[in-house]
Amino acid sequence: MKKQMFSIALTSLLAATIMAGCGTGTSQPPAQPQTGQEQAGQPSGEKKTLTMATSADYKPYEFHDLTSGKDEIVGFDVDIAKYIGAQLGYEVQVNDMNFDGLIPALQTNRADFVMAGMTPTPERQKNVDFSEIYYDSKNTIVSKKESNVTKPDQLAGKKVAVQLGSIQESAAKELAKTATGLQITSLNKTGEIIEEVKTGRVDAAILEDTVAKGYVESNPGLQYTTIETEEVNGSAIAFPKGSKHVDEFNQVIKKMQENGEMDKLIKKWFGQ
Length: 272
Prior knowledge:
There is one protein chain. By secondary structure, this protein is α/β, with parallel strands linked by helices. It has helices at 2-22, 36-39, 76-88, 102-107, 122-125, 167-175, 190-199, 209-218, 245-259, 261-270; strands spanning 49-54, 57-58, 62-65, 72-74, 91-96, 113-114, 128-130, 139-144, 159-163, 183-187, 204-208, 222-226, 238-240. The strands form four sheets. Strands 10-9-11-8-12 form a five-stranded mixed beta sheet, with helices on both faces. Strand 9, helix 6 (167-175) and strand 10 (183-187) form a beta-alpha-beta unit.
């Protein structure tokens, strides 16, 4: 009797299971929440974090901020990168390194992109891909107020400091072709360059205008003069050769320029 009852119960259970498996089409499993990338139209399972390499000594583009009690890398480039990342469904991790190590970081897959006020020169374009230019700038001569070094032709016979691997280093080398006796000192950090000028170990420095403005404002004994040129020294985002991110970043940059977001950040960081 017990075996017969067990057999009936088992048969009923199997029948219920089969019916549940077939379903009626009116009941669906609960929807799973989408990831940020799926919401942004990207396939699930792709990388959610992008690594941005920078040289965080280039205020206001990128610099270390300790006002909150912890060390944070902030600035114009960082704000742009995080805005673009949010629009595309990525988190952005910022890594600090020397400026001359930025392009090698892209070439060795240690970074997904570089933002460091970098100009897309023909030489750099041989090794990496660039986005559209997102901000234009000019070079300046930074010197002590009591010096008469304010023009390119006055750099003849002078010691001039620049950042290693920067567009300003290239500009100094170009000036050296006509400014006889110009001696170039290449350093890793912008702060070191300013100290060299302040202590008189060099006669002047060549820096980007927005960066020079910030340092001169906090060092009243210094001055800066714009080097007038027809060349464009704009900043762009660098990527490894063939990166799929170039087009999608360009699309967001264009939107930022159209919807006023880029102007808002320019005013925030440069006061323009």
